[in-house]
């Protein structure tokens, strides 16, 4: 990326660029050198800020322009809300810019893992077809299941209220997996009918 020049570098460079002659001589005009010494810190500051601006344009080194990056990629996410730490917010920006998406079961498993469900798996429902179906087989399928699939969460996240856990007066029925449902439904192909099973 480069290294910013110091104020000493700028003072030396400006002194070297002065025209020859007695009007610019250090011995006869000491105030010229004092003026150059006074200007050098500001030039060094501008140089450092220009390098910082370059670093803000790369995904690995941005920091000050985080809110600008978030606005450009459509964050905060309507499914996940706002993330707490700066590192999490940067990771969300990077994933929005780098992720390609997909329609394979592995993509949805990866999406669930990022949402906090590392043991998720996808079950694709099948339709009965000649030559590939047998009577008596479990989950034989129906024609209505042609474009259905189920994401099994592999266990629920801690939180949410249910019988035996909540106390009187607390809101009942809140579920911590609403973010996962939102993510899956948003990413699912339009012709499919998806279900999320919280085990």
Please describe what this structure looks like:
This protein folds into 3 domains: 50 residues; 41 residues, no CATH class; 95 residues, no CATH class. Helix content is 40%, strand content 7%. It has 6 helices and 3 strands. It has a 3-stranded mixed sheet with strand order 1-2-3, with helices on one face. Helix 6 links the parallel strand 2 and strand 3. Helix 3 crosses helix 4.
Quick synopsis:
The protein is mostly helical and 199 residues long. It contains 6 helices and 3 strands, in the order H-H-H-H-H-E-E-H-E.
Task: State the main characteristics.
single chain; 199 residues; mainly alpha; three-stranded mixed beta sheet; 6 helices; 3 strands
Furnish the topology, listing elements before pairings.
Elements: H1 7-17, H2 30-56, H3 66-73, H4 86-98, H5 105-114, E1 121-124, E2 148-152, H6 178-187, E3 193-197
Parallel strand pairs: 2-3
Antiparallel strand pairs: 1-2
Helix pairs in contact: 1-2, 3-4
Radius of gyration from the alpha-carbon trace, in angstroms: 31 Å
Bulk shape: rod-shaped
Tally of individual domains: 3
**Strand content range:** 5-15%
Task: Give the beta-strand count.
Answer: 3
Please count the helical segments. 6
Q: If strands are numbered along the chain, what order do they take across the biggest sheet? A: 1-2-3
Low-confidence stretches: none
């Amino acid at each position: 990326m480069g290294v910013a020049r110091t104020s000493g570098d700028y003072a030396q460079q400006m002194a070297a660029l002065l025209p020859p002659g007695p009007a610019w001589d250090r011995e006869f005009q000491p105030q010229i050198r004092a003026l150059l010494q006074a200007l050098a810190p500001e030039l060094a500051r501008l140089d450092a800020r220009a390098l910082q601006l370059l670093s803000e344009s790369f995904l690995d080194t941005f920091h000050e322009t985080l809110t600008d990056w978030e606005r450009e990629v459509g964050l905060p996410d309507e499914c996940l809300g706002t993330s707490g730490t700066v590192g999490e917010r940067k990771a969300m920006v990077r994933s929005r810019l780098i992720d390609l998406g997909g329609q394979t079961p592995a993509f949805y498993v990866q999406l669930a893992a990022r949402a906090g469900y590392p043991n998720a798996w996808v079950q694709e429902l099948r339709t009965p077809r000649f030559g590939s179906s047998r009577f008596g087989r479990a989950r034989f399928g129906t024609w209505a299941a042609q474009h259905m699939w189920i994401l099994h969460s592999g266990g629920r996240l801690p939180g949410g209220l249910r019988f035996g856990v909540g106390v009187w007066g607390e809101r009942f029925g809140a579920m911590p997996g609403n973010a996962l449902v939102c993510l899956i439904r948003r990413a699912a192909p339009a012709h499919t009918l998806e279900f999320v099973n919280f085990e």
